[in-house]
Amino acid sequence: MKKLCIVGGMGPLATSDCYTRIIEKSPATKDQEHIETLIISDCLMPDRTKSIISGDSKELLEHFKNNFKMAEVWGADFIIIPCNTSHFYYDEFVKMTDIKILNMIHLAAKKASDRTYVFATEGTFKSQIYKRYLEQENKEYLPLTDEEKRVSNETIYRIKQGEEPELSNFPEFKKMLEEKSEKAGVILACTELSLFDITNDNVIDAMNVLVDETVKEAYA
């Protein structure tokens, strides 16, 4: 079985949720059959959206470089990063380590509907990483209005600030999700949005896609 390193802390609750899902989807029947996992919850990681918008990624990339070194020393076989926005720097990440890093955005794009809306942070919207990966898969990226982007980004940061991720607490987001998912597919492209309990065949949770691939990779 392969050893996993989760480079997380973006945010901590999303990282905890990611690991819980990995445990729940594991075929293990006893402790020793679970995936050996190193969790790095780097809560001091600079804000990814601010780094993208400002163009100043030096400190952020230094954090990732140090985290990857810890993974190497520990002996990880592969790495996951449960943060969609940070994947803007994926091409930089793979230059920092020889350890395989699963690409959350690419995996979600492959699973997406042919026509898809993306709910994400301001940084993810501005980076257009989902648009790029969806188009590589010959799928249509459906843009949100500026107001819809505001609702998405605001919802994410309210959850980061400690609000309970219940849809009833976020009526604007709930309405937007219902309306968009009736027209096309939707990707929940932020791990804070993954904390919502959503059952909808037209909605893809990027976190779940990453978790499924993680379990598959570990037990391969």
From TrEMBL:
Keywords: Isomerase
InterPro entries with a match to the protein in the record: Asp/Glu/hydantoin_racemase, Asp/Glu_race, Asp_race
GO molecular function, one term: amino-acid racemase activity
UniProt KW Isomerase keyword: yes
Top-level taxon in the UniProt lineage: Bacteria
Transmembrane segments: none
Family: Belongs to the aspartate/glutamate racemases family.
Name this protein carries in UniProt: Aspartate racemase
Organism: Ezakiella coagulans
